[in-house]
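User: Some background: our group keeps a shared notebook of sequences we're curious about, and every so often someone picks one and asks for a predicted structure to add to the entry. Today it's my turn. The entry only has the sequence so far, pasted here. Could you supply the structure so I can complete it?
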Amino acid sequence: MDEQKIRKLLQIAEEALRQAQAVFTDENTEEPHEGAAKKLTDPQRWARLLAHFVAAKDNSLSRAQVSHAAKVSGYGDPRGVAALYNGQTNWLKSQGDERIMTPTAVEWFESKGKQHLDGYKAVNI
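Assistant: Of course. Here's the predicted structure to add to the notebook entry:
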């Protein structure tokens, strides 16, 4: 493929990206529309996800509930939650069909996580 065709493809791709962003963002306010992925910090996503565990009985959710909670907590790809199981945090563990908050996660949520919720209310899902 020659350089001219590559440039044209890049221009088309950039325009498509701008149009997609315009669908989800009001260009005058830069506020995301409902349904748009919000730009959250890691601590905000962690706090939101853990809030769902806290709202649940015994700080425990099913695999499907964790997947849903991850999506509504700001994880574009629920697989990003895997680091909470085996990363440096080890905040979540699998116990049979349930996913459970570890004591370390409870401690972080109570001491630091709540300040990152910014009014977010988790529901028991």
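Suggested note for the entry: Confidence is low (pLDDT under 50) at residues 24-37. The helical segments are 3-24, 42-55, 63-72, 82-86, 103-111.
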